[in-house]
Structure formats: C-alpha cells, structure tokens
Design brief:
The complex is a heterodimer of chains A (about 500) and B (about 325). Chain A is built from 18 helices and 20 strands. Chain A has helices spanning about 45-50, 75-80, 100, 115-130, 145-160, 175-190, 205-210, 230-240, 295-300, 325-330, 340-345, 350-355, 360, 370-385, 400-415, 430-445, 460-465, 485-495, and strands spanning about 5-15, 20-30, 35-40, 60-65, 70, 85, 165-170, 195-200, 210-215, 220-225, 260-265, 270-280, 285-290, 310-315, 315-320, 330-335, 420-425, 450-455, 465-470, 475-480. Chain A starts with 6 loop residues before the first strand and ends in a 7-residue tail after the last helix. In chain B, helix 2 (about 15-30) packs parallel to helix 13 (about 270-285), helix 8 crosses helix 9 (about 185-195) and helix 9 (about 185-195) packs across helix 11. Chain B has a two-stranded antiparallel sheet. In chain B, strand 2 (about 160) and strand 3 form a beta hairpin. In chain B, about 75% of the residues lie in helices and about 0% in strands. Chain B has helices at about 5-15, 15-30, 40-65, 70-85, 90-115, 120-140, 155-160, 165-185, 185-195, 200-205, 210-235, 245-255, 270-285, 290-320; strands at about 145, 160, 165, 235-240. Classes of the chains: A alpha/beta (about 500), B mainly alpha (about 325). At the A-B interface, helix 10 and helix 11 of A face helix 9 and helix 10 of B.
C-alpha cells in the first residue's frame, strides 16, 4: 500500500488580515472514506475546504494528495488533482438538459458539431452506473427535483475524474426521501473509492453515513475520531465545549387565553382541513417532513396566500387577512423559513430592518422618520435579543447567520406581536446561536406571546415545544403533548406509520 | 486595517462621483475659456433643469428595481399638452401647467399598475407606455410643432432671478430638495429603497409593496410631465418630437451616480452630479466644435468608463 491517505492537510494556517481564521488545522481522509467535518459556523470548515479547492491560498502548512506534496494555488490546479466541491447553490444551467450540463465543457470532442445521440447515451450510462436511471438525459435541469439536480452536479464532477468530493450541507434543501437517495449514492461512490468530505449541521446524518469525524472549533483542530467511538452528546460537547442538556434553556411561562385559533383551513392539496389553537405563552410545534404543507398553512393564516375556505379567530375576533399588512396590523408576525430571500434585507442597514414593520411608531408629521426614536427602538430590541453587532448602520449581511435571524426576529418584537409564527427559526445557524435563539423564544413566551414554531429538527421540537402538531401531506395527523413527545413517535406520525402497529 | 491612509482611500472611494465631476470641471475650464462664463453656465442650467427633474423620477423607479422607458415620450406629451391647453382649449396658464402634470400622472400610474398588479416586467410595461404616450402626442398635435401664444409659457423659460439665476434652475433645485428629503427622511423613501433590496421580505414585513411600486411610476410620470412644461417654456412651442432618447440619458445619469439597476442603492445628489457629468461632456465638445456624430461616440465611451469606475471602486470598498 503506497499511501494510506488520499488527502492529507497538515498544520494549515490561514490569516485574513490580522484575524487568524485557521490555526494549525489538520485533516486526513482515506480513499473510500466518508469523512465528516463538523464545527459551529465560523469554526473554519468552509475556509479549510476553500483552501483544499484552491479558492484561497494558505499562509502555512502542507497538502498531500496521494502522498505527494501539492501546492494547490488555483481552483484549476485543485480540479486537475480531482478535488470537486458541491455547494448548496449548484453550478448548473437550468435551461439546458442533463446531458448538456454533465458535458458542458466537452460538448464536442472531435469536431465543432455535437453528436447528440452519443452525448445523451454517455450521460444516461453514467447516471445508470450511479443507480439513477430515472433521470433522463434529455430532461432540462430545471424540471428536476433539487435532489436530482444535486445528482447531476455530482455526475458532472465525477466525469472529470473527481476523486475527492466535498459536500457542503448537501441535505439542507432535500426532503426525507431525497436524502435517502443521496445516501445511496454516497455509499456507491464510497465503494468506487471516492473520498468524500461531508459538511453538515445535522448530527443524525453524520452518524448514519460517516466513517470518521474531524471536529473544528474557532479555527483550531479539536479532534479526529471514528464515528463508532463517540455518541451525539459527546460530539456536541466537542463542538461547543458544553453539554447538550443546556441546549434548551428552561422556560417559565404562564399559559393564558387562546390567541390564535384556526378551523378547517383549506387550500388545494397542500392544506386540507387544518385546525389548531395556540394560547398566550405557549410554544406550539409544527412537525412533519419537508413538503407536508406546514409553511403553506402558515402563509394562509398570515395572508401571504389566499385560503379557499376555513375560519381564523385571532384575539377573540374572526379575521380574514387578505395581505400580510392586515395580519401585521392586528399583531401577527411571521418569520419566514428562508432568511436571506424573505427574512431580512441583506444589503440594507440593521436599523432599517428592525423597524421595517413598525414605521408607524417612528414617523411624525408627513411621514418623516424620527431618527432618534428609530435608533432607540433598534438599540433596545437588539439588546433584548443579545444581538452581536458593530454598528446599527452596518449592512445586515455583515452579521453571522444567527445574528441575522435575530434581526429578522427583532422586527416582530418592535411591532409588539401577540403571536409570532417561526418557520424553521434555527436553519443554517450554528449550535451556539441556536441556544441564544431558543432563549429569545422563551423570553417571548414568558412575556405572553403565543409562538407557533415549524421545525424539521426533532430535537428542537422535543426540547422547545409545549405541544406539537404533526402534519403529513397537507393534513394534521397527530398532536402530542410535551410528556408524550419522542423522536420515534414523531417520525412514525410524519411518515404515516401507524403508532399502534408493530 | 484602520490606518489613516485607508481612511483617505475610503473617503476618495465614497465620493468618487463628486471627484469625477470636479476633475471634469477643471479639465473643461482648462481646455475652453468659454466654459466658465456666466452665459455658458446659466445656459447649461436652463438646458438641463428638465433632465434633472426627469432623473429624480427615474431614480425612484430604479431604486425599487424597476426601469421607466417612457420618460422621454411623456415629456413630449407634456410639451404638446401645454400648447394644446393654451391654444386650442384656451385654458390659460393654470390649465397649461395642470394638464401636462395630470397627463404624466395618468401615464405613470397606468405603467405602475401593470408593473405592480399584473407582474408585467417594468421594461415591457414602460416600453408600451413609451410608444403610447408618443402616439398620443402626435395625435393631439397632428404631428406638427404648435406655437404657444406670446407672453405665456415662454416667459418662464427666460425669466431669471436677479437677472442671473434662471427660474427653471431654481425649480429643478426645489424638486431635487424635495426628492432628497423624501428619500432621506421619510418612511416612503425608506420603503422604496427596501423594496428594491428585497421585495418579498418587505411584503412579509406587512407593507403593501404594490401600492408603493405603482406610486414611483406615477411620480416619474409627473416629473416627466413637469419636464415637458419646462421644455415648451424654453422654446415656446409644443412639439411631439422632443425627448427622444432621454430615457437613456436619465438611466445613464442615475448609474453614473452610483445607482444599482437591481434596486436598493442610489443617491439623489449623486444622480444630479451624473446629469452634470453628461452635461459638461456635451457642452465642452460643443465649445470645442466637435461634430455631432463623433460626440455620441465619445459620450458613450465616457458613460462606460464612469460606470466601470463605479464598479471598480464599490468592489474596492467592499474588500476594505
């Protein structure tokens, strides 16, 4: 055996200006190994991968590929060495076909004319090898599901002899069944000897598919460990340096009157006869798989989409919100699932974001904004949420994901909402920031705000919610109290496995 | 990272539009002795006061992420309407001022309606309005320039405060101040910028974005109507053929002033500077007797260069 390791990054140091982003970090990956790279946001995972793929240079350290020392000073060089990174945003041309995308840089080899038959045949052959015959080479990429697009992206890189595949949060956008397919593909690649570096915030997945784990924290190397030698709790401890039981801070909220009641809400197939109620000071969880109709239901209540039928009672009054404007005026807020696209204005200042829903509070005659009041409100609410920021005039994009989410939440605090719907409030946020957001949610509940929380993370639902609804295919299929909540029960309900059967 | 050298660099980058104007002024003053004369400067102010007002409306539309191609046509319609009110209808001066403004408002509101409520692309909706407004102008005027009666609108065009400052320039200044204040100090201005930055977010924050989108096109229409009045005041005629290509100058001025065509970024004062950059370039070439056709080429090249400079400097400031 010539070399044990396909990739060996040794003592990597990277500085950005005076900031030490990576300090003496090492990573070793064997051929045919799925290697998890974990750590909180800002731990240095992406920086390390960007160095491996040639996007960043390094200040110190060496990289060996198959035992040979390599410089890797450009993305091109990394590609030639077989390093391929699959980002969350794919580098595919949506209007072109699958075959065209896979062979985009080699559409014709011999002459200037493209041999379509040959091209499609080759593409289908590769897809078949990977076990995805159902993807048609002639289909346009935009017509495929996100998971299949990911497969195409992986295919594209494999045909260029990728031997080291970096997957950056590949499952973040996938549904449950799509994730299963991706895992099958990973197994297959593993057998073919491809080395996979897997970055994910979802610990369950890491234990399911990864062989070894490298843990980073604050730009330093913490530990390299085999998956079988460690459990979830220990892993979290390594990542954050604290116990998981402190993940969900205690809450002391008095549950009061019903704030929001929904009866027989309907819209197409995605929302069918949904009924529920949430009371002041209560945190109601909405669990279920991606595509179960959870977000759609909330958008109907909030007036972002129009309902077909059903009744909504808010603060004891029958309401029919035709637009978000009406909902917000009555005191209902919605934190959208996609923070960057829907939650905040990234290229505007923090201050503009926090008071966006409450401009009425800060305007004087003729709609002139009182800058003093604007700043006061912003300062107070950001302090209340323990937000870390430099200046409230900075662009929101300058903040970390967790703090951006806090700014999005701040908007509804300023607006004095009686009920706030949170759609995946901790998506893409690191563990430390998660705990802070949980604290924020608890504070709100203690102040008597009714909280509806959609979440795909079982631990979060179990740790945070007083009560949980489970939705499947547009219907409410179960309701569990805090005492009955368990991961297994949640999964069974959401996948439609009868609880009483064995 | 925070050395004083970088601070100076940042000031230079943040104010590159003003610096560009200053350099241009110096160059103009050096190459032509006729440039810095009272006569030339007041002429320029008169000539470009309408353009400045059109640019204000265009800037608001661009801030929301839209575009308004109909400004030149609405200007022509406005100018024809002035003559129509004064001659055919004999509505007097008040009518001659109100009619073009109302026409501009209607045209803009119609464009805005289609953009906001039917999801029509701003390019397409305003392109349609561009030909419609020009068509109406031709129909009303019968395709001919219409002379306005003496001692009516034409007096505004030549009137000067204290015999020096053209009233048209003062009018433009007032409009600029109003637009500056709205954008800087009011909730309306803030929402306009926010919509350009991310419309979905703003809608989900409980703001009726569609009405704001409709209003910016309506405002742009009124600005163009006002510019139409100014155009006919300068020449004392109403004509359907003026204002061709004005939309491109207006867009260029906004972009030279640092506005992003994706919306969410732009400045009133820098847009005014953008107008003057274009104005000085044309003016100095006229003073140097450069023929008309090469002028266009040079103008185009300078627009590209100044936008490149913008791109270059904003990227620089992001990495600092």
């Amino acid at each position: 055996m010539a070399n044990e390791y396909r990739v060996e990054m040794k003592n990597i140091v990277k500085r950005f200006g005076g900031v030490l982003a990576l300090n003496d970090v090492s990573l070793r990956v064997k051929p045919g190994e799925v290697h998890a790279l974990v750590g909180e946001n800002g731990a240095g995972k992406s920086t390390l991968m960007k160095i491996l793929s040639g996007a960043f240079g390094r200040d110190e350290g060496t990289i060996f590929i198959d035992g040979k020392e390599e410089k890797i000073s450009s993305p091109r060089e990394a590609k030639e060495l077989g390093v391929a990174t699959i980002y969350q945003e794919f580098m595919l041309a949506p209007h072109l076909t699958v075959a065209e995308n896979i062979f985009i840089d080699r559409l014709s080899e011999k002459n200037k004319f493209i041999n379509w038959k040959e091209l499609n045949r080759k593409a289908e052959e590769i897809l078949k090898q990977l076990g995805f015959e159902e993807i048609k080479a002639k289909a346009t990429v935009e017509s495929l599901s996100v998971a299949y697009q990911q497969v195409v992206e992986i295919c594209k890189n494999l045909t260029r002899n990728a031997r080291i595949l970096v997957l950056d949060e590949p499952t973040a956008v996938l549904t449950f069944s799509e994730i299963e397919k991706l895992f099958l593909l990973i197994e297959k690649l593993k057998k073919d000897g491809v080395s996979i570096i897997y970055i994910s915030h979802r610990l369950e997945e890491i234990f399911q598919i990864c062989d070894r784990i490298t843990v980073l924290k604050d730009g330093t190397f913490v530990k390299e460990v085999g998956t079988e030698e460690i459990d979830k709790h220990q892993l979290v401890n390594l990542m954050v340096g604290r116990d998981m039981s402190t993940l969900f801070p205690p809450r002391d909220a008095k549950i009061g009157e019903t704030v929001l009641e929904v009866k027989n809400l309907n819209r197409g197939k995605q929302v069918q006869n949904v009924s529920f109620a949430v009371r002041a000071g209560e945190v109601l969880g909405i669990s279920g798989l991606v595509g179960a109709g959870r977000t759609e239901t909330m958008r109907l209540i909030f007036g972002a989409d129009r309902k077909e039928s059903g009744e909504i009672i808010f603060m004891g009054e029958k309401v029919n919100f035709k637009s978000p404007k009406q909902a917000v005026r009555k005191g209902l807020g919605l934190l959208p699932e996609d923070r960057k696209q829907q939650g905040v204005l990234l290229e505007q200042s923090i201050r503009i974001n926090t008071t966006l829903s409450s401009l009425k509070k800060i305007i004087r005659l003729l709609g002139v904004i009182s800058e003093k009041k604007d700043k006061e409100l912003t300062r107070d609410v950001l302090e209340q949420l323990a937000t870390k920021y430099n200046s409230m005039e900075d662009h929101t994009s300058s903040l970390s994901g967790g703090n951006q989410q806090k700014v999005a939440l701040a908007k509804w605090l300023v607006a004095d909402c009686k009920c706030i719907i949170l759609d995946e409030p901790t998506r893409g946020v690191d563990v430390g920031a998660k705990v802070e957001i949980y604290k924020n949610i608890n504070d709100l509940a203690e102040q008597g705000v009714a909280i509806v929380m959609i979440s795909s993370e079982m631990t979060e639902i179990i740790g945070m919610c007083d009560r949980t609804l489970i939705m499947r295919q547009g219907k409410v299929v179960g309701e569990l109290n805090k005492s009955e909540l368990g991961e297994e029960k949640l999964i069974r309900y959401s996948m439609g496995v009868n609880v009483h059967e064995e | 990272m925070k050395s004083s050298k970088n601070k100076i660099g940042k000031i230079l980058i943040d104010n590159n539009t003003y610096i560009m104007l200053l350099l241009l002024l110096i160059i103009c003053a050096i190459i032509s002795p006729d440039f810095f004369t009272v006569q030339n400067i007041t002429n320029l102010l008169r000539q470009y006061s309408g353009t400045i007002i059109v640019c204000m409306g265009m800037l608001y539309v661009i801030l929301t992420g839209g575009i308004d191609l109909s400004v030149g046509s609405i200007l022509a319609l406005g100018s024809v309407m002035v003559a129509y009110a004064l001659t055919t209808k004999e509505l007097g001066m008040i009518g001659a001022i109100l009619l073009p403004l109302v026409c501009g408002l209607i045209c803009g509101a119609v464009t805005g309606f289609f953009v906001a409520f039917t999801n029509m692309a701003p390019f397409v909706a305003s392109l349609a309005m561009m030909t419609i407004a020009r068509g109406v102008a031709y129909v009303v005027s019968n395709g001919q320039p219409v002379q306005t009666p003496a001692n009516t609108i034409g007096r505004l065009g030549v009137a000067k405060l204290g015999g020096v400052l053209p009233w048209l320039a003062i009018l433009a200044l007032v409009v600029v101040i109003i637009f500056f204040c709205i954008l800087r100090y009011t909730a309306f201005g803030r929402i306009v910028i926010a919509i350009g930055s991310n419309e979905t977010s703003v809608r989900l924050a409980g703001i009726p974005t569609k009405w704001y989108k409709l209003s910016v096109y309506a405002i742009s229409g009124v600005c163009s109507g006002l510019a139409g009045i100014i155009a006919s005041s300068r020449t004392a005629i109403g004509t359907p053929i003026i204002g061709e290509g004005l939309e491109l100058d207006a867009i260029a001025a906004c972009v030279i002033g640092g506005a992003s065509l994706n919306g969410g970024r732009g400045s009133v004062l820098k847009t005014v500077v953008g107008v003057f950059v274009l104005a000085f370039i044309s003016n100095i070439m006229n003073l140097l007797a450069v023929p008309a056709y090469p002028q266009d080429i040079i103008k185009g090249v300078i627009i590209v260069l100044s936008v490149l400079l913008q791109e270059f400097t904003t990227r620089k400031s992001e990495t600092i």
